[in-house]
User: What shape does this take?
Amino acid sequence: MDDIRPGLEGCRQLMAREKAEIALMRLRQELCACRLKPFEYDVAGQLLAEIGALVPAQTSFPVFHIGILADHTTTGMANAIRCAMLIEGMLAVVYEAPFGAVFQEIFDGNSGIYRKPRDAVLIAFHHHAIEYPEHPLTGAEQVEALAARMVGRLEEAWVALRAHMACHVFQHTLVPSGISWLGAVEHEMPASPDKFIARINQLCRDRAPAFVHWVDTASLAQRVGLRNWHDAHMFYYGKLGFSSQYARDYANVFLGAFRAATGRNRKCLVVDLDNTLWGGVVGDVGLEDLKLGPGTPEGEAYENFCLYLKNLQRRGVMLAVCSKNDEATAREVFERHPHMPLKLADFAAFCCNWEDKTGNLIRLAHQLNIDLSHLAFADDNPAECEWVRLQLPDVAVLELSGDPADFVFRVDEAHLFDAAHVSREDLLRTQSYRARQQVEGAKQADGNLDAYFGDLRMTGTCRRAGDAEVARLAQMEIKTNQFNVTTRRYNADQLRAFLRDENMAVFVCSLSDRFANHGIVSSVITRREGKDMVIDSWLMSCRVFARTLEQFIMNSLIEFARGNNIERIVGIYLPTPRNKVVKDLFCSLGFQPLGQEGCSRWHHSVRGVVAPLRTFVQCGGNVTP
Amino acid sequence: MKEELFLANLAKILRVEPGSIKRGDLLDDMAGWDSLAVVTFLSMADSEFHARVSPMAVVNCKTVDDLMKMVDKP
Assistant: This one.
């Protein structure tokens, strides 16, 4: 294998030698390190299409089936998506529907899009193909009616698509043309083309069902410049929707939407310190001579970057430190530097030592009880970045070398933290994870579990969910992998339907302790089958499990069952590679085995006297009958 | 213009061995020279050689040499 050339060419050589797995791993490294040039995305995409068509089963990469429906050429988009999914560790198999046949494909149940099950369908329109108001002076009412008609048609299409196939629906926002009729007073004209497009985008967002996720091409195009995005030559030559110069940017935006839709967005950004959060090495130059704050261009840029990170933390992304440094010296910058906006309390974990960073990242993930695939790591040192990429391919690596003025954009443009929804619990995340560490510390120091649980002063609630909790429930459904007994993943529309189904009961459970109010941390969905109450789904945040909240919730469910003429509760465990932690959950809660056929089923009688399970969680709210 | 870089990039686009393409080669004889290759070539010319080339001008090229002239214009 010594004769394998570097880069994309080496991947092609490996493919020629039927080494698809190694070719994919190499190509993933190239993509993750942003080493491919924009034109190489098309070349890489073609290579991935060959692998996807010939040997998907011979690789360990999970296959992601996506269909693209567009009114313009989809080749570049498909190639960018193939590259994007490989960055995420998946092999995309793409179906490109016939040019311009968006609605025909959706409304015809025998069309190509339905011939195979798809994980997702992407819909994209170009501004050239939409029906604009006929005359520049068309009045506001007619313009509104036209926009509503177009969005109504799209709404029907989303619903029809979803009725045929249970898949994620991704929708491009419409990109404005950038052409004006009146110049600076364009906004005064109701039929202005770009105002019309903005209105359609707004109506779409207002009316889209929860299963529609946005690929915000309009924002991307405005960021890179509409004139650059719409390559007019390429549009008229090959009906390309956007310039292939932006293949990488498009891949990142698509990935942001994909991660948000599937709960694969990163939970924690782990940062290096020297020359990442400030200029200079604090151990060498001391606190006073760091470049941070006014006085130098770099200092201002670093301060602004830290402020950006602080806001990222405020909206629910955890921050952690992983740095080769003396811990006391490093901490001092956050405690004493007048221009450091970040404080120690902003970090969920702080790891400074002289050990290998990959080991530290594994420890950090363990400490926070999250998967490595939830971590992003930012460092100025290219060698450290490459080492982490090679050793821990699931960790997203952001190389922040060069001018710190670019750092905010590099983190932002990676779309690692895009969210479908921000819940109150997201905003409490850092506080909650810090509390978890304090709890773990107390557990280790004490050794006496009863004393430690008692000292936590935990209060819980378990009550029937209402519409107000649907967004948080849907978020937990896509994000919870470990404590998830069936991993059935219901979306907001399905959850709303459960709330209205008299055979179903949906419970939300919250927890607070002396360290933090964790908010809603668990949900249970039950279905009545005769005299049985079947636990269809039970999820719990990894921040709080194994603290006797499980027992508290089961006591509440038993109380509910007894009040509703139920004779037994049935629990199901469907194993996945990531939910082993709940393998023995029902057994530990006093359930008896019922059988095993691909899943394990358990039952618990609630007739007669049922002794409550021992819990240290005090009741702060009752189950609604 | 760096001829070596140009030919190496063209080989990537056509998905052939680096070094197998020569300046006088006819584009019509190359299996990989299709409409997607034209699009990828335009992107490469722009990002690697800062040359904004018209798609129709590229379509009218007959040889590798003609393509090189597209990106080598002052």
